[in-house]
Please model this.
Amino acid sequence: MITARPRVLIVDDDAVSQEFLRATVERCGCEAIGAADAAAATAQVAGADLLMIDRRMPGIDGPALLRKLRAAGIRAPAIATSAELDQPGKAALLAAGFADTLLKPADPATIQQLLLRFVTPLATSTNPDIVGVESTESTALLDDAAALTAIGGDPVALRALRVLFATELDDAASETADCLDAEQRGAVIERLHRMRASCGICGASALGVATRQYERALREDSNEVAPARVTFVETCAATRRAIAAAS
Model:
């Protein structure tokens, strides 16, 4: 008798984060379906055994999407994913109906343990190579060791994720330039927030630091905004060149 693989719907507007989660969930023995927004999630949610929904997305955020899916009769347990998750934020997500939360970037072992909790058939099909992975951090342009640790040690997958990430970097500088009013600044902060998870997944440690510094300066509206942006733009370009050289 063949048992169907558990079906996991991954909703994330960041392409790198979505691909990393999808690949990791597949390696854990599940069927993974990716969706970049609420419309795609609604169209593909039928039959899902587990939902993994990004907390902050353009248009409709994670809690709002979960409410919409619940109203449509979807009862699969949901995990909220986020690149920034303090204790009040986690409490708010649990109060909104999420069964648990996942801080991005998460190591594959953490993802596997979450899947084991919420998808019962997974217990017989887990990948032993994923267990016991720990995360590391440095400030290298491309930290291969940290990236391979984060994604479970697959160099082919790492190259593919970095190529995808490089396409984001092509537009990152221009998309984070306008901060003249509160609405523009908010959009830039959201863009930087999404990028931080991708930096961790791809081992772009220096860019991860520059992104956090730029985002913090914008949130605090400090006099460090201009120099932080210069550092961010320069590090984006340097990281893009490093990815091209390594390809």
Observations:
- Residues 63 and 95 are 10 Å apart (CA to CA).
- The longest strand covers residues 7-11.
